[in-house]
Amino acid sequence: MPKMKGAELITEYLIANDIPYVFGICGHGNVGMLDPLYQARDRIRLISPRHEQVAAHMADAYFRVRHKPVATLTSCGPGSCNIIMPLATALTDSSAMLAITANVPTSQFNRSPFQEVNRHFQADFVNIVRPVVKRSFQPTRVDMLPLALRQAMTTMLSGRPGPVNVDVPFNVFQEEDEVEMPPPAPPFNTQRSGASPEEIARALDMLSRARRPVLFIGHGVTLAEASAELTQFVRRLGIPVISSPNGMGCLDMNDPLSLGFIGRNGAFPANEAGRHADLVIALGARFDDRSASSWIPGYSWNFPTTKLIHVDVDPAELGRNYPPDLGILADARTFLRQILAELERGQSGSDTRAWLADIGQWRATWEKFIAPNFELHASPIRPERVVADCQAVLPDDAILACDVGVNHNWYMQFWRARRPQTMLNSWGFSGMGFGAAGALGAKLAAPDRPVVAIAGDGCFTMVPHVLCTAVEYDIPVVWVIWNNFGWVSIRDIQLGMFGGREHGTMFHQGDNKKPYNPDFAMLAKSCGVDAVTVTRSEDFRGALEHAVKSNKPYVLDVHVDADVRPPATGTWELPPTPFKEPVFGKRFLPDAAPAK
Ligand SMILES: Cc1ncc(C[n+]2csc(CCOP(=O)(O)OP(=O)(O)O)c2C)c(N)n1
Ligand SMILES: [Mg+2]
């Protein structure tokens, strides 16, 4: 057996698993990893951003675009604590990364050496990170590494993907042992679960009886790479599709069967279809509060009056919020292929023409309501206008890395993703900085396609050093800073719940509350990034076109009207505080649905 340092084994194992990048930041704890990475620099590239949070968001976004994992590398103590939030962001959205963290030397465990967390247990990063990863491993000798690495990689990519941690004490990077390189883990999506023949038969039977069927797709469909099968299935049976943000683009959102997103910030036809449906097939989607109008019947859904078939790879998601009439533990693509095979054998669905006609009317009502605002010119700019101009300028394969806030609500409501993996959203955790930082990882995953981050002024100022990384490594991302001079999503909640008072939710300078923000264009230029400030809607489209064409890191500081709010078409509640806002559309409660 070859004699190797632990850090060499880790490096070679990453390479053997086709991992092209390590995103990470040095520290005394992980310096031992830097030298093997230097030796292998032609086969694996170290990118070192200015904050660990950025490294982990980059890894997360890289996986979402490419469905291939990369690794992060952080040092002991504070450096690794900085990735807790992005790990939670990745975990809640089922995105994978191998988070290699460093720890203190095993010989110093429990002596409180520099940067050891040990109040309850020695070198206790494992318990810090535990809730935000699928699994954490802490090999304490080099001969433990082969098993830990193989299990970590396999866990990360199997079933429902997610981040996995390997916590490596300083000496384990450095020490040598005779170790065998473990076999690579099965690549993502090579092992898939499927439905039983009985489940497929029952699903088809329920479909054939349904008059108003709807498909609700989530990230599980994207992760399963089931876009082609999904499209074939819904076109064949004429079933409309509602999408959660991370499912967007699996069905081209210009397809007449695509209804968009559901819930408070969804599209009216989606909520109408959801609450009037007699059968919902949820595929890799999980009915979180934001896509279920906080589970209040009649806004988005009407379970249990509506029948539910729920298909997911994770048993914990089947029936978490709505007990399904038929729960199927299966990969979305396998399930669709199984259903399509039965349809080939002559099985049929039901006649959905009347249902699609109803939906057509809801769509027409909605479009009449929203259309005028997409055309309006104003300064500051109308939010719809920014979305519309992005849509007009960006090619279908461009990747939008969305950050968090009211700006994101507008994109959820109106963005039309044309292809899977082109709209990245921090959905489950809403980690601010995900879009602004993730865009760098997305661009490395798809170097030939435009990558545009949509980031609020608040989100951007959480990670402004992304500009340094873009320059240092020449990563040509365009940042559209949606500048409304505040944490406006939260301001709107505050205004709605607390008598119209604003406190701590806008950016002000001085006693007279003058709106404040840095001059983002100057900030960018000081980092060596081209930039322009856009205050009039007439100028945005051209500026974006220019930025995308320039193929350089670019910042557009876009001043957007903070006082235009996205229309609510469902609801969202934070019990027990009432939050009343006008809803476009009517709550619908079928007789049998339990009223709240
Ligand atoms: C790290 C983190 N901190 C706080 C929050 C709570 N939060 C959600 S949206 C938001 C404001 C976002 O402000 P901005 O980026 O300017 O977007 P806007 O709503 O103004 O469009 C805040 C503070 C969060 N989701 N993540
Ligand atoms: Mg803002």
Give the strand order of the largest sheet, numbering strands 1, 2, ... along the chain. 3-2-4-5-7-6
Tell me how many strands there are: 22
Mean pLDDT figure: 97
Bound molecules: thiamine diphosphate, magnesium ion
> Which stretches are poorly predicted, pLDDT < 50 over at least 5 residues?
none
Q: Label the overall shape.
A: globular
**Quaternary structure annotation:** single chain
Radius of gyration: 25 Å
**How many helix segments?**
22
Q: What level of helicity do the residues show? A: 25-40%
β-strand percent reads 15-25%
How would you explain this protein's 3D organization?
Helices cover 37% and strands 15% of the residues. It is an alpha/beta fold and 596 residues long. The longest helix has 23 residues, at 353-375. It is globular and about 70 Å long. The mean pLDDT is 97. Bound molecules: thiamine diphosphate and magnesium ion (MG). Thiamine diphosphate binds at residues 404-407, 430-432, 456-459, 482, 484, 486-490. Residues 405, 456-458, 484, 486-488 line the site of magnesium ion.
